[in-house]
Design brief:
The chain is an alpha+beta fold and 187 residues long. The protein contains three helices and twelve strands. This is DUF4124 domain-containing protein.
Length: 187
């Protein structure tokens, strides 16, 4: 092995950087257990420091920091557990409805615009999406936003239905509503 390579400036810098990082990490870990001092100056201002810089400085006993909250992954929760599905539990049943437009509403829009707003209980989870059906067919790809703007819809009577999808499967549906779109026609 070439010994000149072992003593190269790059290797030296790498080793120096490694020891510096190690030393700083040990120093910073020790600083978490530092003491805190407080004192009041002649103007009544409180000062805090990790060194007793003033003759009247008093050491403060700090309580141990609480452990960080435990975070559960979605995979850690048994969604089929009876505790989640019991009628007496606080878990809300999944429901979706169309808040706007109302059933049997007449919409006047020469551009053929229908704005749809969903109402969800509870909110969607990250693995769930909404799909809007117009006359029984999907209008656009599933989304997590509960609002749609349908453009250039033909005049006449239409049905609207919302579905909640999870892994591509329908897990909840709204009641189907009927709306009547009126567009002015040139005669």
């Amino acid at each position: 092995m070439n010994s000149a390579w072992l003593c190269s400036p790059i290797l030296f810098r790498y080793r120096l950087l490694s020891f510096t990082i190690l030393g700083l990490s040990l120093f910073s870990a020790n600083s978490y257990t530092s003491e805190v001092y407080v004192w009041k100056d002649t103007q009544g201002n409180l000062h805090f420091s990790d060194f007793p810089e003033h003759k009247d400085a008093k050491r403060i006993e700090l309580p141990d920091a609480p452990p960080p909250p435990q975070v559960l992954n979605e995979s850690d929760v048994d969604w089929t557990s009876s505790s989640l599905t019991d009628k007496g539990s606080s878990a809300l049943p999944l429901s979706v409805s169309i808040r706007s437009p109302q059933h049997d509403a007449t919409i006047r829009s020469n551009a053929g615009v229908i704005d749809v707003i969903a109402e969800l209980t509870p909110n969607l989870r990250t693995d769930q999406q909404l799909r809007l059906l117009l006359d029984g067919s999907p209008v656009m790809p599933p989304q997590s936003n509960p609002k749609w703007r349908l453009n250039n819809i033909d005049r006449g009577t239409h049905t609207l239905t919302l579905q909640i999808l999870q892994s591509g499967k329908v897990i909840a549906s709204s009641d189907t509503i009927t709306v009547h779109l009126h567009r002015a026609s040139v005669q």
